[in-house]
Amino acid sequence: MEDTEAKNTTFPSSLFSFSNPNVSFGFGFGAASGPPPPPPPPALEVLLSEESPVTGGNLEPVVVDDSLSIYKGRVNTCDVFGVKNSDLVPGKYEGGLKLWEGSLDLVKTLNADIKDDRLLVEGKRVLELGCGHGLPGIFAGLKGAGLVHFQDFNAEVLRCLTIPNVKVNLFKEPSQGTFTSSSVGFYAGDWSEIDNLLLSGATVQDKSTNHHTENDGHSGYDIILMAETVYALDSLPSLYRLIKKCLHYPGGVVYMAGKKHYFGVGGGTRQFLRLAAEDGTMQSDLLAEVTDGSSNVREVWKFSFK
């Protein structure tokens, strides 16, 4: 199903999601029958210059508050992947061209925490996992992050949507204050295989912005953002291991937005919370709960090392 956001999106947004238990999606996540999905594509860095000619034109504003809007493009899955009327194709396309509710919930929560001095983004190293449109990462950049990396399963999503969105929002006229090519990075691949590439990128690019010295114990990102990444039960262990590897110890924080349950695909925020509780190295705090009637309960959680 194609993305159906209104042209001037505001919070909260009633977008399509895996929230109706009576709908059969047929994506095969967690299913016991049917052929397994193909192996994931190799992890790779996508350069800022690799923007696809199939890009998200017709920019639409996503209103964060009275003083800030983030602009996003729209790309058809058929144009990029040759797939019609589908949000997910296991092993091929993971829904990155659609704007999901959790992405907007996450931006709203980040905005509230920054305003209330509960979160400092300025100068921080930020990673957005499963970025798609990249709105939370873009928001962090607009709020002064020193480095923002965007990860998605599909390189095509990064080239066709994330990079164009980043350019239009973060690469503005010099008088407005801008990012540079060394301030952003784009990485495609499966969560089970991308940790070395992400950590290498964080270290090399962060040196260019002088945010650490040789003796300060730099390792990983200060803030990890992710929205709607916990839908598939079988991918949660890889996602949790990746977060632990990539999060700066001991002060790093993770902001996670998602639905309490994803009917038909097995995942949800509570399954991810169970993983964290069983591991015992991170604490979790519920920051927001959204019950707007458009889907099942949506939540935003914060994780940090104990």
From TrEMBL:
InterPro entries: Methyltransf_16, SAM-dependent_MTases_sf. Its EC number is 2.1.1.85. The keyword S-adenosyl-L-methionine applies. One of its GO terms (molecular function) is protein-L-histidine N-tele-methyltransferase activity. It is found in: Cytoplasm; Nucleus. GO terms for cellular component: cytoplasm; nucleus. Pfam families: Methyltransf_16. Gene3D superfamilies: Vaccinia Virus protein VP39. GO terms for biological process: methylation. The keyword Ribosomal protein does not apply. Keywords: Cytoplasm, Methyltransferase, Nucleus, S-adenosyl-L-methionine, Transferase. It is an enzyme of class 2 (transferase). Signal peptide: none annotated. Belongs to the methyltransferase superfamily. METTL18 family. PANTHER family: HEPATOCELLULAR CARCINOMA-ASSOCIATED ANTIGEN, HISTIDINE PROTEIN METHYLTRANSFERASE 1 HOMOLOG. This is protein-histidine N-methyltransferase. The lineage of its organism: Eukaryota, Viridiplantae, Streptophyta, Embryophyta, Tracheophyta.
